[in-house]
Design a protein that fits this description.
The protein is mainly beta. The chain has 17 helices and 124 strands. β98 and β99 form a beta hairpin. The protein is flat, with a radius of gyration of 56 Å.
């Protein structure tokens, strides 16, 4: 059953063997699939370890396939330490060739050609076949076997390739028992031994048995006869079995054994025969030392049961035997299953074509190693070893090929035999990407091609050290070999070693002729050269030499040596290999002749072409072969004829007789007929080509057509104005402007003839002159190579004036202002600078090289133009002179109502003021021009601060005649008082009168007085009862804000009256009234005393104040009277008393006592109480006193605190010392906790006047009421103050989140770890995040990925946080957020097409977002998939793109190329961005296309001197038309691009002829662009048709271009889209996004380095704008510290700079942007929310105010004011977020009462018409 299974597996193998056997008789044919199937089957049946070896070999060879890599996967050779018992590797015991009369060692053959008589057992050398040996036996005749053995023919032909566990017939029964067959699989090769340790090209190896390759020579392939003679002299057979002279033992005790001499001799004959056929040295001899190692190695593999170069030592295996066998295995070819050594040598190692070895062909390369001098063979059963690593012989410097040039068919292993070409030291290392092999079957003209991207079969390049290391491997598919086959091999893409780094390109060619050893050699019957004629060019690289190939028939011709000869070596020479080299012009014959006289001849013509002409203007450089022909349409317009010459007419040369095709690149410039006659037609440049002999050589002549007729010239503007201004520092700023000249026609000689051709003159250089140095950053693009026929023909494509402003100052005698001149000669533009106020004329005239004006053909007309220039100088104005206007918006509604001093006027006088009112000044633009200033004085523009006043309502107030404030509205009969109108305008004017910037400003004082006069005039007073009170306006006098709205009151009689004021403000009238009471004159109320209180008196004491100590008012019962007031009031029968603070002092009763009265008081607590005493006399006399009660008991800042057991810091409390009645603080002497049980659970510490309370260890959660004992020094009393303590146990509140996901695609990417908490984080630790780290930097934590992190990495871990003031640590789970996002790249194209026959084998590919790639560090690789050619992709680091190039493109192709971009610096390891590019190769001619088929220009007057547009020229199927397409060192090979009129469009032609539109061709970053621009002339709207042409080497491509002209006004030419809003409180974070778009004008927005955008419009001074970093939009923001209002429509207009394709710029004002600003909602809070204050202590507490605005930075608080309760409290804000609240000792703050205080918060940047935010804080008075 086992044999049946094996038979199924071996059936295809036997079939292949049968086919091979058929080939030995004649023809062998097999498809590649059969061979591959064999390899696969063999691999499947191998043991596991063997399969591993094969796979490992495959892996290594796959790496080695990369031709641009040096030594790849290396297999180490055992060193000394690897041998058992520490013994060194045995030294080689070489075998010397026997000398004269000596017998060679057994089994050693003498070298061919030796004359010694063969010893016993030896075969005679060739030529002695008929001589009998000492045994009397003859050498076997043809068809016989050596040693008289006969072999059945069928057995010979049907060689089994799989062991069948049978024993050879030469094996004895004893041997059969000792050496059983053990290999059950198919014949198998181990991997070849790889040499390591190489230090040079052909390494000096570290292996002590290997010597450096000796200097060698070229190989010599023997002829057919020599090979057959060699075969007869040293016969070999594949049927010599492996016999043993010493039988091996495969079990203990182990014995290596030894092969018989006949087996070894047969193998050596075959080995040297193979080497002889290949042309390498055949003096390899048998070394007994190597044989012992090989035999022991075979035993090791046999015992181990597998093929292994590094076998292990089996149990019981002798150390010395193992050492010997290990050396044999590690240094030898190994195999199993081939039957005998000979079959193994030929069918195994020389075939070497199985899947595991075809990539390296290492076994064959070791066998053909030229420097091998000795070897050894060993075999045990089916296992074979050949020692190969010997390199002591001579080397081969050129190459070794197999199959060889004369190849016995018997040595071929069927159609699956790989071909190898090992290159010697004459060649550089071969590259898999560069090498191309062409194999041609001469008998049937069938060809195969092999390259790195396409192969019709197997193709490999291996540069590892297997014998000769530089090996090209190829195996054709579907091939047939027979004894008459003849093949031609051509290898290109290899380089000769010439001492340079890159070497010299070369091509290697040779023929392979098959023959049979069974047929006798024949004579040469025919010689056939591969071509009959040959045309070479002298001195032209690539065309001055060619190699002829000769086919000699029949293939088994004995001597194929040919003699090559040239009939005339002065014309061409030929070397021994058929390479023909051009020498001189003429014709000769090259012959190839065999020794028997048979020959073939090739006719060779050598040419040396050049151009010649008798025409005027012709120039020729014979050395460079460059030619020019010039015409002038005015002076020299006659035709000129070009002639192609072949050689020098003075020698053998003359006019060429070959077929010549004449071509004009641009027939609108010059035409050429079939005879070479050139006719000039229009100004421009073109190429005229002479195509000789259908592309053999392309001669070209540059034809230039000029016109010396003077053009008409005109200025861009006929008049303009310059200004001179002063900057903020008083420095003079002189405006400069470029003046441009336009030419008609634009293609005149004077436009393209030189750089300095225009003389510019200023009529008055004291007004305006020319810059002598160009301002940096100014660029000018002049009109060069323009118009139909405009073409790229020079390196610069720029004509005169290309270096704009290269003003030489030539002819300048007068220097004006520093850096300017009155006269200059330059190009078509000049920079004009303002010098002084006035008018001048700038004139321009075309001049010659001497600076003299050029005249036209009439000798009189000159070309000149002029422009009137006006210079205005700004009026000088010091800032101290700026007026400071003030306006009352009720009556002054617009700016024009606000009068300014003489010389001043408003820039925007119609600005409405009502919506701009508020509490701050506003800025408005004003112009100043002094009286009498001339017309050339420019008004100075300044921003004036205007204070806008608005009266919304009025109220009335009173003061005494002496000016003191009167709080009540009661007058005494006969009393005179002042009543006045309260209004915000008057209040503001009072403040401004105290302001240093206003009070002395004349403008302010004048306008203030006007407002006050109107106020006095427009306020009407009236009294409801003039008998009681009369009212009269205040008398005229010094007008002030205090008296402008006042009136006099006179109390005439007792009673009441209402006083009314009416204030007329424009259309609005404000009214206010007050009711006044008049009483009779009162009596005298006298205070005699206040019991237990002391009267306090002092300077400045306004109130009547009495003080006392609370301790003096102690009573036995609550609410008992403990004080009284005694007083007298004549005329009163009763006195009543009222307390303003009954919690401090309460009034019990009032009664008469003696001659007066007594008021009983109950003094209750410390504090202040206002007592009002009123009598019932006729005048109702009243008097108020203040009673101040003092107490020494201090107060606590808090009634309760909360302690968190998890915290270590505790809570802070403060003590407020009490004040004595006199205002002196009582000093606190000692503070401690009470001694009660609850108080002892806490501890109290004092730190700088504050007290920290903490819970002691063991304290449980809950609420505790404890006591704080405070001793006061002055009174000697200790007070117990109660405090409620709430004890809790809570963890800190925090939240951890990742700001954004980590992008694993990017290297070193990091994400901020946001930890939201009110606590202070002191430390953070992490665990479990195996591939991630967290780093602290600048106080923040960042998470980043380690190298090797993937999306599947462990992302979940734990974070441990430590907080200041908290016990222990706090752990939370955390998962790292990751993603992998490659940058999104947008390429210019997704497909490209190459046209190799047109020389287009490379294309540049751009990217639309180049900023997404770091071009300095990015690298690129590609996968060409199923491409048929060789392709390469390089990074263009300078321009930011890719360059795709192809090689060996000889057939159409279409495939998707995968381009992989990587960036080791910025992207993670092994991360790439893939770009899929469809690549096509077409054999035809390409077509060009335009990136934009239509160019649009705006001919509106605003743009007709500016607008220009361009389009890139591309190949139609993708890829930019690149300047180096097809370019060589000679610039004339470069592609040229031009534009000309469509002959069908007469309007288009007229447009160009009249110089209204100018065309030009430029190169940008190496690619071509066609540009069109307006020439400052009116152009009708419409579409115009043109043609764009590209040409190179006589090939011309065309595509249509449409020019669309519009006439669109500037307002519609540019569109501005506004989005977003501006928040006045978030001026940095909020902005409007303005996106400009060009709708009807071409160009791009020029963004300055600082990205600032200038603004115009009424409100431009309030805002600022900057380009966004990406340059796509503008961000408009409100300026800092500028006052803005809401609900008002602001207007600004960005002024942008446009730059066209020629680099010219123009400023444009975009449509105005109208918008309103807003003020976002702000959340304001006060802390603490509740504060304690103590009556009698009058302490102060800190009230902090903070603001939060969602989505924005915290707005800055400008001020916080207390609203209401100001009689009891005062608040001072310090602008740092904190303020102090103080309780006044006025008695208004009542003990036990809680006050809800309101604080008005205003922000620094808030809108001026938005009310402040109000925040509340609760205050408890204790």
């Amino acid at each position: 059953m086992g044999n049946k299974k094996k038979w199924k597996r071996t059936l295809p193998v036997l079939l292949a063997a049968l086919l091979w056997a058929e080939g030995t008789l004649g023809t062998v044919c097999a498809s590649e699939s059969v061979i591959q199937g064999l390899s696969a089957e063999g691999k499947e049946t191998m043991s596991g370890e063997n399969a591993d070896i094969c796979e490992e070999t495959t892996a290594e060879t796959e790496k080695a396939e990369e031709g641009d890599k040096s030594a790849l996967a290396e297999q180490e050779t055992p060193g000394e330490e690897e041998y058992p018992d520490g013994e060194k590797q045995p030294e080689q015991s070489g075998t010397e060739t026997p000398g004269e009369g000596e017998q060679p060692d057994e089994g050693v053959n003498p070298a061919p050609g030796e004359t010694e008589t063969p010893g016993e057992g030896e075969n005679p050398v060739p030529g002695e076949a008929d001589a009998p040996d000492e045994g009397g036996e003859m050498l076997p005749a043809e068809g016989e076997q050596p040693d008289g053995e006969e072999t059945d023919a069928s057995a010979t032909e049907e060689q089994p390739t799989v062991s069948e566990n049978t024993v050879s017939e030469n094996t004895t029964e004893e041997e059969e028992n000792l050496v059983p067959e053990d290999w059950n699989g198919e014949p198998t090769l181990g991997e070849p031994p790889l040499m390591t340790g190489g230090t040079g090209r052909y390494a000096a190896y570290s292996d002590q048995e290997i010597s450096p390759m000796a200097a060698g020579s070229g190989h010599r392939t023997p002829g057919v006869g020599e090979i057959i003679d060699r075969y007869k002299a040293y016969p070999w057979s594949l049927d010599v079995a492996n016999g043993y002279s010493v039988t091996p033992s495969v079990s203990a005790p182990y014995a290596a054994g030894h092969l018989k001499d006949n087996s070894l001799e047969n193998a050596m004959n075959l080995l040297n025969f193979i080497r002889y056929v290949a042309g390498v040295p055949t003096d390899v001899t048998l070394s007994e030392d190597y044989t012992e190692k090989a035999q022991a190695g075979a035993l090791l593999n046999r015992v181990g049961g597998k093929l292994d170069h590094k076998p292990g030592q089996p149990d019981g295996f002798p150390d010395d035997l193992y050492q010997t066998g290990y050396a044999g295995c590690s240094n030898g070819n190994i195999a199993a299953g081939y039957g005998n050594i000979a079959k193994t040598l030929l069918n195994g190692w020389m075939y070497d074509g199985d899947a595991a070895n075809v990539n390296t062909m290492g076994h064959r390369r070791w066998i053909l190693n030229p420097s091998m001098s000795q070897t050894g063979f060993g075999a045990v059963g089916s296992y074979s070893v050949m020692y190969v690593r010997d390199s002591k012989g001579s080397g081969i410097t050129d190459y070794v090929a197999w199959p060889a040039q004369n190849m016995p068919i018997e040595l071929m292993n069927g159609s699956g035999t790989p071909w190898t070409l090992s290159l010697g030291s004459d060649y550089k290392k071969a590259s898999f990407q560069s090498v191309t092999v062409t194999l041609k079957d001469i008998t049937n003209n069938k060809s195969w091609s092999f390259s790195g991207s396409n192969a019709t079969g197997v193709f490999k390049v291996n540069v590892e050290y297997y014998g000769m290391p530089n090996c090209i491997i190829f195996r054709p598919s579907n091939v047939r070999y027979n004894k008459d086959s003849q093949f031609q091999v051509t290898v290109s893409g290899i380089k000769l070693e010439d001492g340079t780094e890159n070497g010299k390109d070369t091509t290697l060619s040779y023929n392979v002729d098959f023959f049979s050893l069974k047929e006798e050699p024949a004579e040469v019957a025919s010689v056939a050269l591969d071509r009959d004629t040959l045309h070479l060019l002298k001195g032209v690289e690539g065309k001055q030499e060619e190699t002829l190939l000769a086919a000699v028939q029949p293939g088994n011709a004995r001597d194929k040596e040919l003699t090559w000869a040239s009939k005339d070596e002065s014309v061409a020479t030929v070397d021994g290999n058929g390479k023909v080299t051009a020498v001189g012009v003429g014709t000769t014959e090259i012959s190839a002749t065999a020794k028997n006289g048979v020959q073939d001849v090739c006719t060779v013509k050598v040419s040396d072409y050049s151009l010649q002409s008798d025409a005027n203007g012709f120039f020729a450089d014979k050395e460079t072969k460059t030619y020019r022909l010039s015409f002038d349409l005015t002076m020299n317009a006659e035709q000129g004829r070009l002639v192609v010459m072949d050689g020098d007419p003075a020698d053998k040369g003359g006019e060429a007789t070959d077929a010549i095709r004449w071509i004009s690149e641009n027939e609108t410039v010059a035409a050429v007929d079939t005879d070479g006659t050139v006719t000039p037609l229009s100004v421009g440049e073109t190429l005229v080509w002479a195509d000789v002999d259908n592309g053999l050589e392309m001669l070209q002549c540059v034809v230039t057509v000029e016109d010396s007729k003077l053009p008409q010239i005109e200025m861009q503007e006929t008049a303009y104005t310059l200004t001179i201004r002063k900057d903020a520092d008083g420095n003079t700023q002189r405006e400069s402007r470029r003046l441009r000249l336009y030419f008609s026609p634009s293609d005149s000689k004077w436009v393209n003839g030189g750089q300095n051709y225009v003389k510019w003159t200023s009529a008055d250089p004291t007004v305006a002159a020319f810059e002598t140095d160009v301002a940096p950053g100014v660029k000018d693009v002049t009109d060069t190579e323009e118009g139909p026929g405009a073409e790229e023909g020079t390196d610069t494509e720029e004509g005169p004036g290309a270096e704009e402003g290269t003003d030489t100052g030539e002819g300048s005698d007068t220097e004006t202002e520093s850096g300017t001149a009155a006269l200059t000669i330059s190009g078509n533009t000049v920079a004009v600078t303002a010098v002084g106020a006035g008018e001048t004329t700038i004139s321009a005239v075309i001049v010659n090289e001497e600076g003299t004006p050029v005249t036209d053909s009439d000798g009189e007309t000159i070309a000149e133009a002029s422009c009137a220039v006006t210079v205005q100088e700004e009026a000088y104005l010091a800032d101290r002179e700026l007026p400071r206007p003030v306006a009352l918006t009720n009556t002054q509604t617009t700016l024009k109502d606000v009068t300014l001093p003489d010389g001043w006027s408003w820039k925007e006088p119609d600005t409405a003021l009502a919506q701009l009112t508020g509490g701050k000044t506003k800025k408005f633009a004003a112009l100043y021009k002094p009286a009498g200033a001339g017309e050339h004085i420019l008004p100075a523009e300044r921003l004036l601060d205007v204070r806008l006043l608005t009266v919304e309502n009025i109220s009335l107030g009173m003061r005494t005649a002496e000016g003191k404030a009167q709080e009540d509205f009661v007058l005494t009969k006969g009393q005179n008082s002042i009543i006045y109108v309260n209004n915000s305008a008057a209040d503001t004017l009072k403040q401004l009168d105290e302001n240093e910037e206003y009070k002395n400003n004349d403008c302010y004082k004048t306008q203030r007085d006007d407002i006050l006069r109107d106020m006095r005039k427009n306020i009407i007073w009236s009294s409801s009862n003039t008998n009681v009170i009369s009212v009269e306006p205040a008398a005229d006098g010094i007008l002030t804000a205090d008296n402008a709205g006042s009136a006099k009151l006179a109390a005439k009689s007792a009673g009441s009256a209402t006083i009314k004021a009416s204030y007329k403000l424009g259309k609005k009238t404000c009214q206010a009234s007050v009711k006044l009471t008049v009483k009779e004159a009162g009596g005298t109320l006298t205070i005699r005393g206040v019991e237990k209180f002391t009267r306090v008196s002092g300077a400045g004491q306004a109130e009547e104040r009495y003080t006392g100590l609370l301790s003096a008012f102690q009573t036995e019962q609550p609410n008992q009277v403990n004080s009284k007031i005694t007083l007298t009031l004549p005329g009163a029968a009763k006195v009543t008393a009222k307390s303003g603070n009954a919690k401090v002092v309460a009034v019990k009763s009032s009664a008469a006592e003696g001659d007066g009265f007594a008021v009983s008081l109950i003094v209750k607590a410390a504090g202040t109480a206002q007592i009002t005493l009123t009598g019932n006399d006729a005048a109702k006399t009243s008097r108020t006193i203040w009673l101040v009660v003092g107490d020494a008991e201090p107060g606590l800042s808090d009634e309760s605190v909360t302690l968190n057991l998890m915290q270590t810091d505790g809570e802070w409390i403060s003590l407020y010392p009490a004040k004595s009645p006199e205002g002196r603080e009582y000093r606190i002497k000692k503070v401690q906790l009470g001694t009660d049980e609850k108080s002892t659970k806490f501890k109290l510490e004092e730190v700088r006047g504050s007290y920290n309370i903490k819970a002691k260890s063991g304290t449980k959660t809950g609420t505790y009421r404890i006591k704080i004992c405070v001793a006061v020094e002055e009174v000697g009393t200790t007070y117990e103050l109660p405090l409620t303590v709430k004890v809790v146990s809570k963890n800190p509140v925090y939240k951890v989140k990742q700001a954004r996901k980590l992008n694993l695609f990017c290297k070193n990417d990091e994400s901020l770890l946001q930890i939201d908490t009110d606590e202070i984080l002191t430390r953070l630790e992490y665990s479990g995040l195996a591939d991630y780290t967290i780093e602290k930097r600048d106080g923040c934590y960042y998470i980043k990925a380690e190298n090797g992190a993937t999306l599947k990495s462990v992302k979940k871990g734990k974070l441990t946080l430590y907080f200041s003031g908290w016990q222990g640590s706090y752990t939370t789970s955390f998962t790292v957020g990751v993603e992998k996002k490659a940058p999104k790249l947008t390429w210019d194209t997704k497909k490209v097409t190459l046209y190799p026959q047109a020389g287009i084998q490379s294309l540049w590919i751009g990217i639309k977002n180049p900023e997404a790639v770091s071009w300095d560090s990015v690298t690129v690789k590609k996968s060409s998939g199923k491409a048929k050619g060789n392709y390469d992709v390089e990074v263009d680091r300078e321009k930011g793109g890719l360059l795709l190039s192809g090689k060996n493109l000889n057939q159409t192709d279409s495939f998707n190329m995968q381009i992989f971009l990587s960036d080791a610096q910025n992207w993670a390891q092994n991360e790439t961005v893939t770009y899929t590019l469809q690549v096509r190769v077409k054999m035809g001619q390409p077509a060009i296309a335009l990136e934009n088929k239509t160019l649009q220009l705006n001919a509106d007057a605003a743009y007709r001197g500016y607008d220009a547009a361009s389009t890139a020229v591309k190949w139609k199927d993708g890829g930019m038309l690149w300047e180096s397409d097809g370019a060589g060192e000679n610039k004339k090979e470069r592609i040229r691009v031009s534009v000309y009129c469509d002959p069908k469009d007469a309007r288009a032609k007229a447009l160009v002829q009249n110089s209204k539109v100018i065309f030009s061709v430029t190169r940008e970053n190496g690619s071509y662009h066609v540009a069109a621009r307006l020439n400052n002339k009116a152009v009708d709207a419409g579409s115009y048709k043109y043609i764009v042409q590209a040409a190179k080497d006589g090939k011309i491509w065309k595509t249509p271009l449409t020019l669309k002209v519009v006439n669109t006004a500037p307002a519609k030419a540019v569109k501005l889209t506004a989005k977003g809003s501006i928040d006045v409180l978030n001026r940095e974070g909020s902005f409007m996004t303005l996106t400009p778009a060009l709708k009807a004008v071409s160009g791009e927005f020029a963004i300055p380095a600082d990205r600032e955008v200038r603004l115009a419009g009424r409100d431009a001074h309030l805002f600022e704008a900057r380009w966004r970093e990406d340059g796509k939009a503008i961000e408009l923001r409100a300026k800092r510290n500028e006052t803005l209002v809401i609900k008002y429509q602001y207007t600004v207009a960005p002024i942008l700079t446009l730059r066209n394709v020629n680099g010219e710029t123009v400023e444009i004002s975009t449509p105005a942007v109208k918008f309103k600003v807003k003020q976002g909602s702000v959340k304001v809070s006060a802390a603490p929310k509740t504060a304690l204050m103590y009556s009698g202590a009058y302490n102060s507490v800190k009230i902090d105010v903070s603001a939060v605005m969602k989505g924005a930075d915290t707005p800055a608080i400008e001020n916080v004011t207390l609203v209401g309760n100001t009689d009891a409290f005062a608040y001072v804000y310090n602008k740092e977020g904190t303020g102090t609240l103080t309780m006044k000792d006025t008695g208004r703050a009542v003990k036990g009462k809680s006050y809800s205080l309101q604080f008005k918060v205003s922000f620094a940047e808030q809108a001026d018409n938005v009310k402040p935010v109000v925040v509340r804080c609760k205050v408890k008075v204790k």
